[in-house]
Amino acid sequence: MSQPKIRLFVNAALYAGATVTPTRDQANYLFAVMRLTVGDGVTVFNGQDGAWTAEVAEANRKHASLRVTVQTAPQETPPDLWLLAAPLKKGRIDWLAEKACELGVSRLHLVTTARTVVDRVNIDRLTAHMIEAAEQCERTAVPALLGPDPLARLLAAWPPDRALIFCDETGGPPITTALDQGPAAILIGPEGGFTPAEREAIRAVPQAKPVSLGPRILRADTAAVAAISVWQATIGDWKNTPSTQ
Ligand code: SAH
Predict the structure, then answer these.
(1) Taking the mean position of all CA atoms in its chain, how far away is CA 240?
(2) Which residue lies with its CA nearest to atom 9 of ligand 1?
(3) Model confidence over 29-84: pLDDT tens digits?
(4) Cα of 10 to ligand 1 centre, how many Å?
(5) Which of 217, 219, 221, 231 best tests ligand 1's pocket when mutated (most atoms within 8 Å of CB)?
(6) Beta partners for 174?
(7) Quick count: other Cβ atoms within 10 Å of Cβ 197?
(8) 3-state secondary structure of 232
(9) Of 62, 61, 56, 50, nearest to 15 (Cα)?
(10) Closest Cα to atom 2 of ligand 1
């Protein structure tokens, strides 16, 4: 079923007949910027109930509401891939959160390491970036955002069934040779890289798979996008894309 182009993330249960009140910013966007009027359709999603069409029922700033009509897409089940990355400077971490969402991770977990230089993370801003990315790329799930948590704590409680794909700039087997089906997490270090002690601690985790992303040292944000892309193309949901032939 075709979906109206404008997509909004809403904090409301979605079912036929539900009424959704847009936030002030959303109302401004819908009615002042996009000039929608009563009866126009938008697509809404809440991260749980798939995508739905909703019609504008009231279209002024004081009284704005949408009436949910039909479901247009089921809730997606994203591949079970986490990204573990150290917080980066403002522009770069925003970019990383946006790209991780677009590329389809299920979770972004921020990790603090010995050489992490950024100590404050604006979780609300990062969440807003991921929601915007989900709206734009037609996802119905917004990745969970966790942390920041110290690397040592995450390693100590590493889930037994989850591969830890450790992107190690000092070298390792090519990433494509180290990927297996099943839950996974990609671990990327901060701009300054991991310390030798951290590298040792990561390698001591039985589920750890140290990998190389090639002969060049990539920036942390580039490394994250490259590793997620390889994982998606090799064992993730890029393989499920319908063929046009
Ligand atoms: N220590 C480096 C920079 C680290 S790059 C230096 O200053 O020289 C930031 C992170 O990106 C690394 O910790 C690693 O996780 C990842 N990364 C960058 N290039 C990589 C490569 N060629 N192979 C594997 N991981 C890489």
Answers:
(1) 19
(2) 220
(3) 999 999 999 999 999 999 999 999 999 999 987 899 999 999 999 999 989 999 99
(4) 37
(5) 217
(6) 212
(7) 10
(8) helix
(9) 50
(10) 193
